[in-house]
Amino acid sequence: MKLVLFDIDGTLVDCGGQTRQPFGDALEAVFGTRGDLPGYDFSGKTDPRIVLDLMTAAGVPAARVLDRLDAVRDHYLDRFARTLEPARVRLLPAVVERLRQLAARADVVLGLLTGNWERGARIKLGSHRLEEYFRFGAFGDGRLDRDELPPVAWERAQAAVGRRFTPAETLIVGDSPLDVACARAHGIRCLAVATGWTPADRLAAAGAERVVADLAGPDLEEMLAA
Description:
The protein is an alpha/beta fold.
């Protein structure tokens, strides 16, 4: 049996930039500044890390930022839920077909590994009814860095299916160098898809076992068979 952990943004869907405005509104509401939001690269970061990076760079003490993370989360997610336009959320190539195929297999367990706060992840997935494919996941809640997430995913997978997974039985599917680094930090193989904001050559240089243009090809199944 294999555990396949999917990232969301740039891997399953592209929200068309709809997160930045409510995220910035939340930062301004809590800290009085958005920091260098336009110049910041969200890709692969956890939501708490994004807040910490932006606000400490803007001069807010780290202790104050960490103390107010829940307030930012609540402001952001309330605004995001109200303002997200599902029609502008782009489903990435072959995602539904691939998830359907994997979900039908008795030897595959699907989960999420994402830096999003869990409620935000569910909102994004709900725009295309993708949440039905994922019984559990590891999210950015309470975690600053992506490398902290695989042990959480393993714990939740065991609770969901009653089986402990090893790194060799796990595959991460993501679109950023941080997805690749997270996988490598735990001895997990990574299928990197160039459907996000990182070109294929950079994903290969980061050390992904395989890099593909999208999920349409046989690569994921081939990696599961290996």
